[in-house]
Write a structure and sequence with these properties.
The structure is a single chain. The chain is 76% helix and 0% strand. By secondary structure, it is mainly alpha-helical. The chain has a domain of 37 residues. It is flat, with a radius of gyration of 84 Å. It starts with 40 loop residues before the first helix and ends in a 14-residue tail after the last helix. Keywords: Coiled coil. This is DUF4200 domain-containing protein. One of its GO terms (cellular component) is cytoskeleton.
C-alpha cells in the first residue's frame, strides 16, 4: 500500500435528530429518540455494529505502514551505531597494537630495573642483618664489660676487707713455733690449710652429732611407739586373760559338778555292786543246797542262769512234795506241772 494514497469513508446518510420542544406532546405519536454520542471516532469505528469490514481493513493497513516506517528508522539508527562501533573498534585495536609495541620496547628496561631492585633489596636486607648482629655483639660486649667491671670492684673491695685478716694471720704465723706447721709452700698457706682441715673436721663432727641426734629422736619415737603397742597388747592380753579366767572358773564349776555327780554314781554303783555280790552269793548258797542229785556240771562251772534254773527246779520239787503230802501222798495220782507257780 502506498503512503500517499487517499482513502474515502462511506457512511450511511445521517438521520435528522428530533428534539422535543413541547412538554405536552402526545404519547401516541411515534417520535424517534437518539442517544448522545460521547465516544471518539476510533472507538465508534471499532464498536459500531454497522461498521463495514473494509473500513477496519483500511485502518489496520494505516497502522501497519506506520509500524514499518518506525522499523525503517530503527534500522537506519542501528546501522549508524554499528558504523560508529566499527570505527571505535578499529581505533581501539590500533591503540592496543601501539601499547603492545611500547611494552615490547620497554620490557628489557623493566627487567633490568627489576633485577637492580632485587639486588638492592638483597643488599639492604644483608646490611640490616649484619647491623643487627653487630648491635647484638656490641650489647653483649657492653654487658660483659659491665659484669667484669662489677666483679673487679667486688674483688677489690673483698681484698681490701680481707687485708686485715692477712695481717692478723701473719702476726699469728710469727708467733707460732717453727715445728707446729708442715711447711710445704708458705707458712700462711700452711696455716690456712690447717684451719681448713680443722673446719672440715668440725663440720663433720657437727654433722655426725646432728645425725646421731636425729637417730636418737627416731629411736625415742620408735620406743614410744613400742611402749604404746606394748600397752595395747597388755590391755588385750589382760582382757583375754579375764575371759579365760571366767571360762576357767566356769569349767572348774562344771568339773566340780561332774565330780560330785561321778562320786554319787560311784557310791550308787558300789552299793549296787555289793548288793549284786550278795545276791550272787545267796544264789550260790541256795544252788549249793539244792544240788542233791548227780549233775554232770558242778556248781562252780554253772552259770547264774543254770543256778537259778536249779533253784527253780528245787523249789518246784519241794512244792510238789508239799502238795502231795497235803493230798495224802498217792503215788498214782496225777502230779501237777512242775513249772507252774
Amino acid at each position: 500500500m502506498q503512503a500517499g494514497a487517499s482513502y474515502r469513508l462511506d457512511l450511511d446518510p445521517p438521520k435528522k435528530n428530533v428534539f422535543v420542544t413541547q412538554l405536552d406532546a402526545r404519547e401516541d405519536e411515534a417520535v424517534p429518540v437518539y442517544p448522545l454520542v460521547q465516544e471518539s471516532a476510533a472507538q465508534l469505528i471499532e464498536a459500531s455494529l454497522h461498521t463495514k469490514q473494509q473500513t477496519l481493513l483500511l485502518h489496520k493497513e494505516v497502522e501497519g505502514e506506520h509500524v514499518e516506517e518506525q522499523l525503517r528508522e530503527k534500522r537506519a539508527e542501528f546501522q549508524r551505531r554499528m558504523d560508529a562501533c566499527s570505527v571505535k573498534r578499529t581505533s581501539l585495536q590500533r591503540k592496543q597494537q601501539e601499547m603492545k609495541d611500547r611494552v615490547s620496547k620497554f620490557e628489557k628496561f623493566i627487567q633490568d630495573n627489576e633485577s637492580k631492585r632485587r639486588r638492592a633489596i638483597q643488599k639492604y636486607q644483608m646490611e640490616v642483618r649484619l647491623k643487627e648482629q653487630k648491635k647484638l655483639e656490641l650489647e653483649y660486649l657492653k654487658k660483659e664489660l659491665e659484669d667484669l667491671t662489677n666483679k673487679y670492684i667486688y674483688l677489690k673491695n673483698k681484698l681490701d676487707a680481707y687485708k686485715k685478716y692477712e695481717e692478723f694471720l701473719m702476726q699469728v704465723v710469727s708467733i707460732l713455733p717453727e715445728d707446729y706447721l708442715e711447711v710445704n709452700d708458705t707458712k700462711l698457706n700452711s696455716l690456712m690449710m690447717r684451719h681448713r682441715t680443722l673446719s672440715d673436721t668440725n663440720d663433720s663432727l657437727i654433722h655426725n652429732i646432728i645425725n646421731i641426734t636425729d637417730e636418737l629422736e627416731q629411736k625415742k619415737q620408735e620406743m614410744e611407739q613400742l611402749l604404746q603397742e606394748h600397752d595395747k597388747l597388755k590391755l588385750s592380753i589382760n582382757s583375754q586373760l579375764s575371759l579365760k579366767q571366767k571360762e576357767l572358773e566356769h569349767t572348774q564349776s562344771h568339773n566340780d559338778e561332774l565330780e560330785a555327780k561321778f562320786s554319787r554314781h560311784k557310791l550308787d554303783f558300789r552299793s549296787r555292786l555289793a548288793m549284786y555280790a550278795q545276791i550272787i552269793m545267796a544264789i550260790d548258797n541256795i544252788a549249793e543246797k539244792c544240788h542233791h542229785r548227780p549233775d554232770p556240771l558242778s556248781t562252780d562251772t554253772k552259770t547264774t542262769f543254770h543256778k537259778l534254773k536249779t533253784i527253780d527246779d528245787c523249789i518246784t520239787e519241794k512244792t510238789d512234795i508239799v502238795n502231795m503230802a497235803n493230798r495224802g501222798g498217792s503215788p498214782g495220782g496225777s502230779s501237777p506241772n512242775r513249772y507252774s507257780r
